[in-house]
Design a protein that fits this description.
The chain contains nine helices and ten strands. It has 292 residues and is of the alpha/beta class. The protein folds into two domains: 134 residues, Rossmann fold (3-Layer(aba) Sandwich); 136 residues, HUPs (Rossmann fold), CATH 3.40.50. Helix 4 runs parallel beside helix 5 and helix 8 packs parallel to helix 9. The longest helix is centred in the C-terminal third of the chain and has 25 residues. It is elongated, with a radius of gyration of 20 Å. This is Universal stress protein. Belongs to the universal stress protein A family.
Length: 292
């Protein structure tokens, strides 16, 4: 299903770690990998460069993509390489759109080595703006990241964006021959201090189970059986998802960039944002339909 994969790289250790995963994906899906290096020519970046000229930066970019292509060639993976200049996230998004790619794969931080809970600005912006699915992962979680995927989790709230993620998750589970897990989370604080828990919980549970039944029926129509449809409760949605990931040995979580609260295209939904920043496993994000 992923026939054309974009891998933006800055030559950092984080990018190198993610590239191993990219090659595994490419081998599984018989995909071509587009290896892209973007020389950051924004004003702030140029000030930090302090004397490095464009030729030297381009030569460094050529070296980075050449070495990655050589690594891919040893595994029989077809590649396309390119070195461009500009603002990294814009160039990455434009490249993916221009070449009709199926997937962008990136680490959550790169050469600057941002701290664990701070998502690198380039990856964050690509997740927010790319029209194609974006797969992100934290390079420091090498012990928990594996491929091929055996267990794929799709949390859902019934929104259009969640349904888009469901369709993608079903396709991934089918292509990877993985078990599909469907999850709906009821956040307890959402009830409010004045709510009557018995009535509210009954209504929320009924709604959650209806959503899961519809999601399971969708998967079944696509020829994919849902291993489990689970309603979880917790103080927060993202924490409940992380707990489920840990308890069920999930290898990949597929989510929409925003849900029922209707976040604007350029404001990453808080649940997805938190998952991308903290998930110990790869997170595959997808925009809602007609999000432009």
């Amino acid at each position: 299903m992923f026939e054309q994969i974009l891998f933006p790289t800055d030559g950092s250790d984080g990018a190198a770690f993610v590239f191993d995963h990219v090659l595994d994906l490419a081998a599984r899906h018989d995909a071509t990998v587009h290896i892209l290096n973007v020389t950051d020519t924004t004003q702030n970046s140029l000030l930090e460069i302090r004397g490095d000229d464009d030729d030297a930066l381009e030569q460094e970019g050529d070296r980075i993509v050449r070495e990655a292509a050589e690594q891919a060639d040893k595994q029989g993976i077809d590649t396309v390489t390119d070195v461009v200049q500009g603002e990294p996230y814009r160039e990455i998004v434009d490249y993916a759109e221009k070449h009709g790619l199926d997937l962008v794969v990136m680490p959550t931080h790169g050469r600057r080595g941002l701290e664990r809970f701070l998502l690198g600005s380039t990856s964050e912006r690509v997740v927010r703006r790319a029209d194609v699915p974006v797969l992100t992962m934290r390079p420091d979680d090498d012990d928990t990241i594996s491929h091929p995927y055996q267990n794929v989790l799709v949390p859902t709230d019934g929104s259009d964006c969640a349904n888009q993620a469901l369709a993608l998750g079903v396709d991934v589970a089918d292509a990877e021959d993985a078990v599909l897990h469907l999850l709906s989370v009821i956040a307890i604080p959402a009830l409010g201090v004045d709510a009557r828990p018995d009535i509210q919980m009954e209504l929320l549970e009924e709604s959650a189970h209806e959503l899961l039944d519809e999601a399971a029926a969708f998967a079944d129509d696509a020829g994919v059986d849902a291993a489990s449809t689970t309603v979880e409760y917790g103080p927060s949605i993202h924490q409940a998802i992380l707990t489920y990931i840990d308890d069920h040995d999930i290898d990949l979580v597929v989510v929409g960039t925003h849900g029922r609260t209707g976040f604007d295209r350029y404001v990453l939904g808080s649940v997805t944002e938190y998952l991308v920043r903290t998930s110990p496993i790869p997170v595959l994000t997808v925009q809602p339909p007609d999000s432009e």
